[in-house]
Structure to design on (474 residues):
């Protein structure tokens, strides 16, 4: 994995590695649900996303730092998180399978 | 007694230090439900009421330690100071009363914390011996037990679920229902961090009735080199994950031990279920409804004091009226825009600016 080029880099906010299907830009008003085991990709997170946060195996956000909401929640939940990628919601697409390395702050595309 | 000017200088600097790290937007991004602006509507009315509650209790002969106990936990009390940064009245008499209130809060915090300002980065409520003794009353699960990895995993799910649930109830001021404290040192060199959740069934949210418990305490034991830091508000300010440093834990729901896998799973699932129901309800609320709930969250701090003083404990009607009619819109916008320039300043300059924002002695 180390030799692969990451698709995205950001701030490593919660350690660990998880692979899952991307769900982008979920809004609390959205009707669809993140599948259990999905990677929640969002500009930022809020408590209104509780059902989604509890289903996700990893979080990736556009904005935020090590004390951002997503970072704190991910550390509490013990799931990997990369924040401050600036363009995750632009580059990652629904259904893509990615590997999130929360220790390094990298997001890789899986084959 | 807080009598010296330097006591208040230290207090407002401690607040500034807790806030300067990152823009509040990153700490609790609220644009989807935006309750934060209602603090500008609430602050003057609420702080005035709270000061009157405390004055009345003092006149009734209440000792300072007993008044402190009405706040239940110090982080809940510290949360009141957040409103000092949202005061809109420039009235000299009112601001003088706020100075008195700040002094009283500092005295109250001194009754509740070993270090009232958490200046060393610890939030110590117990003596070291108390923490060690507390552990002897719990069934501790440690890293030598079977299926430790699964135990750790379910514990993280429980802790994460409790966290998001507390945010759902109390928005950005979830310290109103939780007190994390420590680290306390064990003779083995390990450290204890206590995560205590309480008031998890506030009456202003009807969906909370379904939650089968009202308090939950997790005592986590971490390796000696785990970096556990707190800020003035009693918030964990560590930016590293503590999960990897966990070497043991105990969990209690109410007064019952709940450290076995089945019990923890049941707590996690029931909390997630209630939280999901609550999130769906919150999503359907109007802006005004959300603001009212946020004011109710603040009011939760005041209710025990108002009741003890024999006063009304309702959300101030004037604050609600002002908020519904957007009467402080320009003040809110000006306040937010004034923070944009902070990114260009040095750490000490930012701290100085923030300390002045909270300090009622500054016009």
């Amino acid at each position: 994995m180390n030799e692969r080029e990451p698709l995205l880099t950001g701030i490593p906010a919660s350690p660990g590695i998880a692979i899952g299907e991307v769900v982008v830009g979920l809004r609390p008003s959205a009707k669809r649900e993140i599948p259990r085991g999905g990677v929640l990709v969002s500009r930022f997170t809020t408590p209104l996303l509780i059902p989604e946060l509890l289903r996700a195996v990893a979080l990736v956000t556009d904005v935020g730092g090590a004390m951002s909401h997503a970072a704190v929640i991910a550390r509490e939940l013990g799931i990997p998180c990369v924040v401050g990628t600036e363009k995750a919601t632009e580059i990652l697409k629904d259904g893509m399978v990615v590997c999130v390395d929360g220790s390094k702050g990298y997001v890789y595309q899986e084959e | 007694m807080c009598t010296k000017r330097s006591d208040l200088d230290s207090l407002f600097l401690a607040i500034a230090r807790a806030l300067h790290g990152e823009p509040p937007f990153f700490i609790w991004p609220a644009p989807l439900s935006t309750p934060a602006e209602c603090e500008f509507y609430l602050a003057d009315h609420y702080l005035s009421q709270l000061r009157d509650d405390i004055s009345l209790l003092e006149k009734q002969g209440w000792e300072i330690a007993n008044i402190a106990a009405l706040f239940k936990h110090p982080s809940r009390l510290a949360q009141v100071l957040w409103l000092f940064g949202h005061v809109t009245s420039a009235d000299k008499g009112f601001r003088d009363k706020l100075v008195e209130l700040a002094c009283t809060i500092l005295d109250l915090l001194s009754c509740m914390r070993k270090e009232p300002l958490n200046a060393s980065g610890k939030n110590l409520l117990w003596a070291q011996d108390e923490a060690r003794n507390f552990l002897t009353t719990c069934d501790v699960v440690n890293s030598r037990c079977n299926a430790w990895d699964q135990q750790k995993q379910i514990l993280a799910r429980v802790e994460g679920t409790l966290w998001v649930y507390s945010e759902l109830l109390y928005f950005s001021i979830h310290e109103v229902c939780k007190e994390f404290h420590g680290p306390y040192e064990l003779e083995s060199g390990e450290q204890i961090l206590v995560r205590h959740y309480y008031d998890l069934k506030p009456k202003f949210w009807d969906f909370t009735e379904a939650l089968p418990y009202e308090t939950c305490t997790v005592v986590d034991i971490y390796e000696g080199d785990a970096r556990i830091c707190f800020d003035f508000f009693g918030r964990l300010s560590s930016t590293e994950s503590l999960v990897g440093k966990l070497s043991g834990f105990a969990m209690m729901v109410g007064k019952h031990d709940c450290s076995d896998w089945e019990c923890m799973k049941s707590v996690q699932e029931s909390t997630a279920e209630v939280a999901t129901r609550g999130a769906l309800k919150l999503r359907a609320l109007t802006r005004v409804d959300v603001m009212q709930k946020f004011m109710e969250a603040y009011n939760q701090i005041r209710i025990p004091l108002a009741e003890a003083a024999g006063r009304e404990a309702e959300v101030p009607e004037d604050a609600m009226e002002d908020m519904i009619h957007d009467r402080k819109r320009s003040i809110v916008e000006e306040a937010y825009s004034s923070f944009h320039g902070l990114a260009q300043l040095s750490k000490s300059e930012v701290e100085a600016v923030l300390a002045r924002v909270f300090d009622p002695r500054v016009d």
